[in-house]
Amino acid sequence: MNYTNEKRYSLKQIVILLTIAFSLVSIISYAAVTIPNTFTSGTTISSSQVNDNFTALKTAVDANSIDISALKTVHTGTASVGAMVGVTLNSTVATYQCGGGPGTYGRCAANTLTNDYLAAPIQLPNGATITGISYTCYDNDATYDSVARLWYFGDNAYGEVGAATTSGTSTSNQKVFRTGLNHIVDNSSNAYTVYMSINTSAVGYIVPIKFTVTYTYML
C-alpha cells in the first residue's frame, strides 16, 4: 500500500502514535519491547506491517498487566464506631454515658421502658471485603446478653452482614468476634449501620462500647 502525499499526514499520525505507545510500554514494562517495523516518511508500507506493530504493542501491554497484577497484595484494614455516638431507635428510651470495664466508657439504658438498640452509621471503603466483626461490651448481667449487628441498606435490598453476641457475666469488658464473613462493600448502592442492643432491665450492667469491622482490600 503506497500512501500518496494527501495521506502522509495519516502515516505520520500512525508513526507518532506507535512511537509514543512503545515508549510508554518500555518505561513501565520489565521486558524490552521490540518494534517489528520501522517507518520513514515517503516509504511504502503495508497494513500488515502496521498491524504487526500494534500486535507487538498489545502483547507488551498484556504482559505488563500480568506483571502488575502479580504485584498486588491483599491488605487488612479495620473500621470502628463507638456506642457513644449511637442513638436509640425508640426516642422514649433514655441513655447516658456510663463506665464499662476499667478505664472505658460506653452508653447504657437509663430507664426501664423497653429494650432497644443504639444505631450508628459506619464508614467502610468501597470495594473492600468484610471478613469479620468484633463487639466490645461490658456485660455483667446474669439474665441478659447484648448483641451487635451490622446491616446494609440498599436501593432495592437490605440485610444483615453479621452479628456478635456477649454471654455470661464479667467484671471486665467482653470482646466477642464473628469471622468467616464475605461481604463486598458497595457504597454506590448501600449504606451501613451498626446496631448495639441495650437492655432496660439490666441498665448499667450492659454497656455497649465499640463495634469493629475487619476487611481486606487489594493494593
Distance between the termini: 47 Å
Give unreliable regions as ranges. Answer: 1-9
CATH-defined fold name of the largest domain: Jelly Rolls
Strand order of the largest sheet: 2-5-10-7-8
Tell me which CATH architecture of the largest domain applies here.
Answer: Sandwich
Number of extended strands: 11
In CATH, what is the homologous superfamily of the largest domain?
Answer: Galactose-binding domain-like
Number of domains: 2
SSE class: alpha+beta
Main sheet attributes: strand count, strand direction, barrel closure:
5 strands, antiparallel
Q: What would CATH call the class of the largest domain?
A: Mainly Beta
Sketch the topology as an H/E string, one letter per element. Answer: HHEEEEEEEEEEE
Percent strand: 35-45%
Number of helices: 2
Query: How much helix, percentage-wise, in residues?
Result: 10-25%
Rg, alpha carbons: 30 Å
Q: What's the shape?
A: rod-shaped
Mean pLDDT: 85
Please outline the helices and strands.
Layout: H1 8-28, H2 47-71, E1 74-82, E2 87-88, E3 95-99, E4 105-109, E5 116-121, E6 129-139, E7 147-154, E8 158-165, E9 174-184, E10 190-198, E11 206-218
Antiparallel strand pairs: 1-11, 2-5, 3-4, 5-10, 6-9, 6-11, 7-8, 7-10
Annotation keywords:
five-stranded antiparallel beta sheet; Jelly Rolls; disordered N terminus; four-stranded antiparallel beta sheet; alpha+beta; 219 residues; 21% helix; single chain; 2 helices
